[in-house]
Specification:
By secondary structure, this protein is of the alpha+beta class. Helix content is 27%, strand content 40%. The longest helix is centred in the first third of the chain and has 21 residues. The relative contact order is 0.14.
């Protein structure tokens, strides 16, 4: 009897472990607003983002493939600054992720559940949390910063000449 119970318990544990490992989060779950919770460069300690550090990153994934990324910084005076990083498109299908037309990478974005994903960028591991209750006015403002037109060619040339000689 004890052997039967032991075998049944082991079988149940195996099934539960297999279900946990194969739990698939639908690709569409990436659609929405995400904030970086933490980042960790290889060989360094994890850095938590938010109020304590005055730094986070914002990512937006639209249902139509729209992609926006911005860094958000709060200075010592409590003033916040939105620094647009990228604006373009993304794809995410069957675990293959690409943004801004870069080569698609398998498992660069791993959805651990509907509200969390782990990502890797160069030699940094990030954890992102979905923001279901972020005010639409705030999302639209950050998106408008990211969507801003490119700088005039003349200014781009002046920057190259003055700063990147």
């Amino acid at each position: 009897m004890k052997k039967v119970m032991l075998v049944m318990a082991m079988a149940l544990m195996s099934v539960m472990q297999m279900n946990a490992q194969t739990q698939k989060v639908a690709d569409k779950e990436i659609v929405g607003v995400w904030l970086m919770e933490s980042m960790q460069w290889d060989g360094e300690r994890k850095t938590m983002c938010g109020k304590e550090t005055g730094y986070t990153q914002f990512k937006y994934y639209g249902a139509d493939g729209e992609y926006a990324c911005a860094q958000i910084v709060m200075n010592k005076d409590g003033q916040c600054v939105v620094m647009p990083h990228e604006y373009g498109t993304y794809t995410f299908k069957d675990g293959w992720y690409s943004e801004m037309g870069r080569e698609a990478i398998k498992d660069a974005v791993i959805l651990t559940d509907k509200n969390t994903y782990k990502g890797r960028w160069m030699n940094r591991n990030d954890i992102w949390k979905k923001q279901a209750n972020m005010p639409e006015k705030l999302v639209n403002y950050i998106l408008s910063c990211c969507r801003a037109k490119e700088m005039p060619a003349e200014i781009n040339q002046l920057i190259k000449q003055a700063m990147f000689k």
